[in-house]
Automatic annotation (TrEMBL):
Coiled coil: none annotated. This is Sensory histidine kinase/phosphatase NtrB. Residues 8-47 form the PAS domain. It comes from marine metagenome. Residues 138-350 form the Histidine kinase domain. Transmembrane segments: none annotated. SMART domains: HATPase_c (SM00387), HisKA (SM00388).
Length: 352
């Protein structure tokens, strides 16, 4: 059997791997490591690991241990590299590799654990969404039953009333009952493919921005950081407008209408949503500099009936999560005083 070259084997791995000389100089980097570090092999080769990764002393000690044929695993290290402010947190395993020419090499494996944490959070989010959907379905059932009785009573009353002016009020009741019933059907019904269109995510964000500024005319500002290279997506534009509007309104209400809303877009490559890996995923990040989500509801913020405001219905974020999920995406939330961020991840449909 023919033996494959080591670099060909390493390039076939999905794990990020570097071959490093014991003084810390990078000898080789595989394809997965180039994606992780967002740098080509030419840019990485020959650089020192402390400069490239920012780990420093712990990695140097692990490299020294390979001279004694020992492997070392360093847990949850934060790398110097980051993607748009998102730190890379990795588990790093350093093992003896062998000699190349006159130099001894160590094999450095980097496994992202922040991805695993995000996957765990996303799984929990999906579980919460399933519970939320069940609660919304039951709530819809409880709403539609009295609506039907209300409409029926108004219809009977309409037949008994003698004058046209009085019947006008009963017809308003019937019309509003029909409207609410149709709204409940749209919220709980299937996401039909006939509603999908091709559009730019920036158009959705800008529409929401204009709506919000028309409603809150003083004390509120928007900052925008858009990636002009993002591709168009397929989906229901009106529903996504509603999802973004719900999140923005939550931020505006939390700040009592005075503060800054941030809108940011980025394209993520080789990004996992649920159990599926996508070549391209769009991120829309909506942030505010308000007081933050109260700690006691932060984990359950996407559940219906959970609200940080007195008198709040607690449906806006639950509906937003449902809309994004129907598009095959996910929502993440991070909040602390002065910085609350909702990140919407939407997969880009690849041309067939």
């Amino acid at each position: 059997m023919e033996t494959l070259p080591a670099d060909q084997i390493l390039d076939g791995l999905s794990t990020a791997v570097l071959l490093v000389e014991l003084d810390g100089s990078v000898h080789y980097v595989n394809g997965a490591a180039q994606i992780l570090l967002a740098a080509s092999a030419e840019r990485v080769r020959g650089r020192r690991t402390d400069e490239l990764l920012g780990i420093g002393a712990p990695l140097q000690a692990a490299l020294a241990a390979t001279g004694e044929r020992r492997s070392t695993t360093l847990r949850e290290l934060t790398l110097k590299q980051s993607i748009d402010g998102h730190a890379l947190v990795v588990d790093c395993t350093v093992s003896p590799f062998g000699w190349v020419g006159d130099g001894e090499l160590a094999l450095v494996e980097l496994v992202r654990v922040d991805h695993l944490s995000r996957f765990t959070l996303e799984t929990r989010s999906q579980e919460r969404h399933a519970v939320s959907t069940m609660l919304i379905d039951r709530l819809a059932h409880e709403i539609k039953n009295p609506l039907g009785g209300l409409r029926g009573a108004a219809q009977l009353l309409d037949r008994e009333l003698p004058d046209r002016e009085s019947r006008e009020y009963t017809r308003i009741i019937m019309h509003e009952a029909d409207r609410l019933s149709a709204l409940v059907d749209r919220m709980t019904g299937p996401f039909t493919t006939r509603e999908k269109t091709c559009f730019n995510l920036h158009a959705v964000l800008e529409h929401v921005r204009r709506l919000t500024l028309a409603d809150v005319q003083e004390g509120l500002t928007f900052s925008r950081d858009y990636d002009p290279s993002i591709p168009e997506i397929m989906g229901d534009r009106e529903q996504l407008i509603q999802a973004v509007l719900n999140i923005v309104r939550n931020g505006v209400q939390a700040m009592d209408g005075r503060g800054e809303i941030g809108l940011l877009t980025r394209i993520r490559r080789q990004f996992t949503l649920g159990n599926r890996r996508h070549r391209h995923v769009l991120e829309a990040r909506i942030s505010d500099n308000g007081p933050g989500i109260p700690a006691d509801i932060r984990e359950n913020v996407f559940f219906p009936m959970v609200s940080g405001r007195s008198g709040g219905a607690g449906l806006g974020l639950s509906i937003a999560q449902d809309i994004v999920s129907r598009h095959g995406g996910a929502i993440e939330c991070m909040s602390q005083p002065g910085d609350t961020r909702f990140s919407l991840y939407l997969p880009v449909e690849e041309p067939s």
